[in-house]
Amino acid sequence: MWSAAGGSSPLLVVCYTNHALDQFLDGLCAVVRGRGAVVRVGGRSRSARLATCLLKELRKNARATRTAPRRIFLNRVEARTDMELQQVISP
Fold first, then answer.
1. I want to staple 22 with a disulfide (CB 3.0 to 4.6 A). Which of 47, 57, 65, 78 is the partner?
2. CA nearest 15: which of 7, 6, 4, 26?
3. DSSP class of residue 11?
4. How many H-runs (helices) and E-runs (strands) does the chain carry?
5. Domains of the chain: which residue ranges?
6. Mapping DSSP to helix (H, G, I), strand (E, B) and coil, where does residue 46 land?
7. How confident is the prediction for the chain on average, in pLDDT?
């Protein structure tokens, strides 16, 4: 959204129904351009236009296009599991 400082700032929209939110965001998507400009949280959208704006889809696409090797992420999971086991073992 526009701000006097020249930058952009996030806008949180809360609607009573999912349908109302979809209608509002459909109109906003027609005005706002750019990947990630609109992010819809929640999976109960029935709008085809908003399918690419769902947080779940954005996360899935980000994971598919990441450049870090997969072993780094697997090692992170293993390290977290080891730390949790150490917390359980030591009082």
1. 47
2. 26
3. -
4. 3, 0
5. 18-66
6. coil
7. 79
